[in-house]
Specification:
Keywords: Amino-acid biosynthesis, Asparagine biosynthesis, ATP-binding, Cytoplasm, Ligase, Nucleotide-binding. The chain is of the alpha+beta class. The chain has a single domain, classed as 2-Layer Sandwich (BirA Bifunctional Protein, domain 2), CATH 3.30.930.10. The chain is built from 9 helices and 11 strands. The strands form 2 sheets. The protein has an 8-stranded mixed sheet with strand order 1-5-6-11-10-9-8-7, with helices on both faces. It has a 3-stranded antiparallel sheet with strand order 2-4-3, with no helix packed on it. A hairpin with a 4-residue loop joins strand 9 and strand 10. The chain starts with 14 loop residues before the first helix and ends in a 6-residue tail after the last helix.
């Protein structure tokens, strides 16, 4: 457990005022992002059959919450880590056309998460996915989409300021782009997290690109990324410098999804070629799924960012160790 207590912290809003602000941010943001990216809201599963290969493997070491059910004997059911693969399958199944997309409210349990100001075992995010043409699988498409998302977040800052001027946390006016290799070249002596903190503090908002592959000097990836949804050359994380906690906060992980060629390559690099026999992977390798771009946008993280909160537990209900709860209470941090 890691906990940062801001000096002289003032939550600005009461718990009930915070709850009202959360509702406003969530409802307004999803309407605006769906218009900006041409997305339709769709229902999504909380759990999937392990045998489908639809669950997100994250870094490959986190264990999903799993169970069996009477109606499906012999099947292991897993609570989703994210909907990265399911969304691409859903776009095909539901007949979405070129440049059409979906978003959904994704709720996950990540029981192995290390708890701190930003991380909970409960994950709530807007998961979204959009059909693109194969020739649009470019860095230009990725950057354009990141700028669209950033524009909506900036507009939300103004909306929240109008309703809660005493509480809003002000954001930079533009987002910058940098690759993980450029970060390593600039600060080879630092860890990936330290590099992210440096660059986020320098720019205020930054999209760190190309996550998953090995870097030249360290021969290690900047961060783990599953090999079977993002293309490691065309993905990234949207980070903001967060003054209340003096660190970067990640709001979105997103990217252009793997093609047949890039998935074969990445499965080999990840020593996970056995996944090619799973139903989802077979469909993709057979060219039966659309080319897409997609990602997740943290709902609680966004509320935390816009309201200047010190702990994600102030904007979501989860479970926390007793010593963390005691420290937060003593500092005026109102855990729900």
């Amino acid at each position: 457990m890691s906990l940062v207590i801001p000096r002289d912290y003032d939550p600005k809003l009461s718990i009930r005022e915070t709850e009202a602000a959360i509702r406003y941010i969530r409802e307004t943001f999803q309407d605006e992002i769906s218009q900006e990216l041409n997305l339709q809201r769709m229902s999504a599963p909380m759990f999937v059959e392990k045998s489908t290969g639809l669950n997100d493997n994250l870094n490959g070491i986190e264990q999903p919450v799993s169970f069996t059910m009477a109606g499906l004997p012999g099947e292991t059911i897993e609570v989703v880590h994210s909907l990265a693969k399911w969304k691409r399958y859903a776009l095909k199944r539901y007949g979405f056309g070129m440049h059409e997309g979906l978003y959904t409210n994704m709720n996950a349990i990540r029981k192995d998460e290390e708890l701190d100001n930003y991380h909970s075992i409960y994950v709530d995010q807007w998961d979204w996915e959009k059909v693109i043409a194969k020739e649009e699988r470019t860095e230009e498409t990725l950057k354009r989409t990141v700028r669209q998302i950033f524009k909506v977040i900036k507009h939300m800052e103004h909306e929240v300021w109008y309703k809660y001027p005493q509480a809003v946390h002000h954001l930079p006016d533009q987002v910058h782009f940098i690759t993980t290799q450029e970060l390593e070249d600039r600060w080879p002596e630092l860890t990936p997290l330290e590099r992210e903190n440096r660059i986020a503090k320098e720019y205020g908002a930054v999209f760190v690109m190309q996550i998953g592959g090995k870097l030249r000097q360290s021969q290690e990836p900047h961060d783990g990324r599953a090999p079977d949804y993002d293309d490691w050359e065309l993905n990234g994380d949207l980070l903001f410098w967060y003054e209340p906690l003096q660190s970067r906060i990640e709001i979105s992980s997103m990217g252009i999804r793997v093609s047949e060629e890039s998935m074969r390559k990445q499965l080999k690099l990840a020593h996970a070629e056995e996944r090619k026999d799973l139903p989802f992977h077979k469909m993709l390798l057979n060219g039966e799924l659309p080319y897409t771009i997609g990602g997740g946008i943290g709902q609680s993280r966004l509320c935390m960012l816009l309201l200047g909160k010190a702990h994600i537990g102030e904007v979501q209900a989860s479970l926390w160790p007793e010593d963390m709860l005691a420290q937060c209470a003593a500092a005026g941090i109102q855990i729900l």
